[in-house]
Specification:
single chain; alpha+beta; Alpha-Beta Plaits; 4-stranded antiparallel beta sheet; 2 helices; globular
Length: 93
């Protein structure tokens, strides 16, 4: 079974450039650790609402562990708007 992960959150306006660099580092770390390439989407009418997309994840436990570790190591949550969190949705294919 394969899974698709969708993570969405609001970025603080003053942190957008810094956050994008961190997310690209996150993608690189996850690709190296799991073989899964991520994509970053920004909402057309609300450019501070971002979504990370990871598809065709076969080892969900390893992916989730690597995602959590890399997110923490890169301090992604420091880029978020006040009172915002990264929300994770996972879908089965």
């Amino acid at each position: 079974m394969a899974y698709s992960y969708y993570l969405y959150y609001r970025v603080a306006p003053t942190q957008a450039q810094n956050c994008e660099a961190r997310v690209l580092e996150l993608f690189s770390a996850l690709k190296q650790a799991t073989g899964i390439a991520g994509r970053l989407l920004k909402k057309r009418s609300d450019p501070l609402l971002w979504m990370e997309v990871y598809e065709n994840v076969r080892d969900d436990a390893k992916f989730e562990l690597e995602l959590e570790q890399a997110t923490s190591q890169l301090a992604i949550t420091q880029c978020l708007q006040e009172d915002s969190t990264r929300r994770v949705e996972c879908f089965e294919a």
